[in-house]
Amino acid sequence: MTVVEALTHALDADRVRVDADARSARRHDYWMVSSLRDRQGRGAPMPACVVRPASVADVQTTVRLCAAHGAALVPFGQGSGVVGGVIAGPETVLLDLGALNRVREIDPVNLTARFDAGVNGLVAEEAVAALGLTIGHWPQSIALSTVGGWIATRASGQFSTAYGNIEDIVYAVEAVLPSGDLVTLGRGPRAAAGPDLRHVMLGSEGTLGVITGVTLSLRRKAAAQAVTAFAAKTMQAGFDFQREIVQTGWRPPVMRQYDERESGRLHADARDCAVIMVHEGPASLVAAEVEAVTTLAAEMGLAPLPPAIVEHWLGHRNHVPGWDQILDRGIVADTVEVSAPWDRIGAVYDAATRSVSEIPGCLAASAHSSHVYRSGLNLYFTFAIRPDAAQDMEAAYFESWRRVMTETAAAGGSLSHHHGIGRIRRDWMETELGATGVTLLQTLKRALDPAGVMNPGVLVPD
Fold this sequence. Notes:
Number of domains: 5
Largest sheet: 8 strands, antiparallel
Number of strands: 19
Structural class: alpha+beta
Low-confidence stretches: none
């Protein structure tokens, strides 16, 4: 009996789909390389079947049958990942969690919310917003991603400087292990019960289990909001300004800085290296923070910019062109997010943008920062390359990534901030973790998934 036959026998018939439409729609995520290969007739094959579980028990059954048959199992949320975390093979079982979409409970006393893993991010936010609450997690993909996907990819949101990344928001994680056993990790607001096993699932990208439920810690909706914007003469001047703000103790939820090229795309009134901020919280705190950063900007030589720049960003921040619009023009493009300490971030920016700009056919090599910490910040590089020949597009894409990774590592930065590893960064993991760290990750993978069926080819170097 094949794994598809076994699944069809064990689950309700409508839970196992073998029709071409279902299989084709879930062959891969939103990685540009997958879209490029589709256009060139080299795309990922369709999976053997798509399983759409109706319950956690269905997930357990699916996991156990895949392990017994040695069939690769790839969890699928909404396919918004951009690093090749989902690529089907002809023997792959694609586990679509979209039917696990219940809002299980919202607790306004303890400020927690429990969701099925397949709940859409915007649906989750709107559910708690109806009670005057917020998750505070606003990834650009909020309307295209799931709460389980946020955990699996170790995601970050646009308001993270004050509200934290997903690891700061998650309260508990429910997951089906590769053995088929169910585990719930996290019982209280904090625990000293050995290593925090929630982090086994955070960033695991479907390689160590299937996330089926998520409990998130909420916030009350901010009473007041204000925006500010300033122009720094150089990227380093802007970095210094942001460092002084956070190390002084202020926490604007949004702090973003754009180089001159990206400032020009941000808004017609932006100039130099624009720094924009959104301030939220109690009205008195917001007023004090606005006054403090405005005073600091004047002291450090940054000029004020119109608040309309930030309002425009708030209204358009999730609007980006699709890959087809870019590929139609013979261009490959992507964003590469990294991070580094304050004393190294300038060197990362200079080296990476310079190196990418030297690639033949380069149309853009720019960056902005979008997440700030006491000890450093991230950079979000953008590249666009139009090679002379269509057959060179994929090579140009990988060369751009190679240069950003190489220069970031050489300058002492970290090679991923919030998009995860997938396939594009997998072979750089030794640079990030060291050889011993990679061995540790491989050991964990073998211990949890001895059959090697959970999303093979992703995250863990061979």
